[in-house]
Amino acid sequence: MWKSLRFCMYWSVVLGIWGIVVVGGILAYYAAHLPPASEWAVPQRPPNVRIVSANGTLIANRGDTGGEAVRLEQLPKYLPDAVMAIEDRRFKYHFGIDPIGLARAAFVNYTSGRTVQGGSTLTQQLAKNLFLKPERTMQRKMQEVVMALWLEWNYSKEEILEMYLNRVYLGAGAYGVDAAARVYFGKSARLINLAEAATIAGLLKAPSKYAPTRNAQLAEGRAQVVIAAMHSAGFITAGDAKNALFNPAHVVTSHNSSSGNYVADYVMELLPGYVGSIGEDIIVDTTIDWDMQQAAETALTSRIAESRQEFNVTQGAVVTLNRSGAIRALVGGVDYRKSQFNRAVYARRQPGSAFKPFVYLAALERGLGPSTIRRDARVTYRGWTPKNYTKRYYGDVTLTQALAFSINTVAAKLAHEVGPANVARTARRLGITSSLKSNPSIALGTSEVTPLEIAAAYVPFSNGGYGVVPHVVRQIRNEKGEVLYRRSGDGTGRVVRGDKLSEINSMMAQTIYGGTGKRALLAGRPAGGKTGTTQGYKDAWFIGYTSSLTTAVWLGNDNNKPMKKVSGGTLPAEIWAWIMETQHQNIPIARLPGVPINLAETSPLQKPGTAPARRQPTFVTAPQQPQPPRPAVQATTAPPQQNNNSASPLDLLGRLFGGG
């Protein structure tokens, strides 16, 4: 008996040694097809860009992974436990490969007659993801073992587990547990509960199959398997398991529809100009006020949803800037999932009458005034005959009436008097950057602009006459807190003289208080603005401002099809008022140069055609003394007021008929 036992032991040792030699030889053979070990290195995880609002609210993560790299100690303990329980229960005890696990998997699969369990450890899976192609060959499997042994030799178990959790694919374009938590549950992986952790761990078997966004019932069933495995492995108590089973994870509505994605896309396009190529995780602090952003998105999307059928309007854009040009809200469309085109930044559309303030400002700078009289009558320039929106002519009107009621013939006359080139120069001075055609029709906004640039060009009316550079990035820093970029300098200097600012504001206030923009009236808050409607109702605008914020609203259709009689004074004005009332809830009422706070209590502006035109009161207050934005680029100032000795015949006529 003892001889037989010794015989068996002897040959077991011999066969074991030869087995090790054979396996070692096979591994050495396949390892020879790998690069030299001195060149092996864990590739850097693709960097993540975390984009946050002014108060730190996450707007979006951008990058190949879709989430942040998280440290193991930052995660709730049950997340790595869930992964180990369902994928590699002996992870902490093996050396990269698990002979016991392999034997168990082989036995289960053999007795089941099909593949039920896998034998790969988490380390092997990480090695495959980091270094190897996803092909199913013996060579790849042996190389996977070699690389797993190398990882175990060079990294701790905690480091290996952390790398795995931050890089594994979990469906829906999410790489890593943080990206998965944000995609499926709308939160960081640091904040998920046990049921959510089990759902994420359950995805490892087949991310597409078990994704809760595709099949919630299948995902919940898989999560129950994970919870049972965690209890069996001793990671959680029976009470924890019962609570998680009775409170399954709930998937959030897709966050990809949020308008914040338009902001994130815009930021990503700007980043190379600030920091060059991105080689590490960074945090971008933006100027966006998240409450204002949500107010703008809600107002735009809900109003268009209500009006889509009745008015044939399908798209829109909103931009809000503060008095220094910081973008506080930016909505590039009604549904980011359906269209990622950012209309707020890139859509070039005709502004229509929303361009007229630049025409009137140019006229004011030439010596005319709000009470200057011009005749509303048929006029033709180079074969072009502008027509009024009402298709009527009103005779003598003041410039205030003409602007407030958007009389096209008077705007065309003024552009002709001051010169289309001067109108274009005025618009550029205030912030228009698109190409402008210096022809008579410039008065009616026939040159295309973007919502962002025309909103920025209106900001000087609100801030005391200072030009601004619209911007959305405040600061960029890395995970260590090192500042890579910080914005400095806010504007282009003074672009409108104080006296002319008061005059143009007094005129634009009348647009809201009694003109075409009456639906944009704000309760008890001085404001100015202008409606804009293009030929055939293809575009409708309202752009307006208080002393704190400037907002532009555009509505239209991407295919340029006409809306059903949507003018700037209808839906855009209503949306603008809704947005601005909400955005100003915590902002004190402040004076606007040229506009008394109690303007609504004064005599209303006389509507053209209802009585002979006469001088309208010009509400001019002492201009505010705002702190001018620090000049980044010196801009050309407004032309000086001409004196009597050099007055042109046009100036003399304007003064004779009551001009300023």
Automatic annotation (TrEMBL):
Residues 59-231 form the Glycosyl transferase family domain. One of its GO terms (cellular component) is outer membrane-bounded periplasmic space. Residues 316-580 form the Penicillin-binding protein transpeptidase domain. Residues 601-660 are annotated as: Disordered. The keyword Protease applies. It comes from the Bacteria. Keywords: Carboxypeptidase, Cell shape, Cell wall biogenesis/degradation, Glycosyltransferase, Hydrolase, Membrane, Multifunctional enzyme, Peptidoglycan synthesis, Protease, Transferase, Transmembrane, Transmembrane helix. Residues 632-642 have a biased composition (Low complexity). One of its GO terms (biological process) is cell wall organization. Pfam families: Transgly, Transpeptidase. One of its GO terms (molecular function) is serine-type D-Ala-D-Ala carboxypeptidase activity. In the C-terminal section; belongs to the transpeptidase family. In the N-terminal section; belongs to the glycosyltransferase 51 family. This is Penicillin-binding protein 1A. It comes from Pseudovibrio denitrificans. The lineage of its organism: Bacteria, Pseudomonadati, Pseudomonadota, Alphaproteobacteria, Hyphomicrobiales.
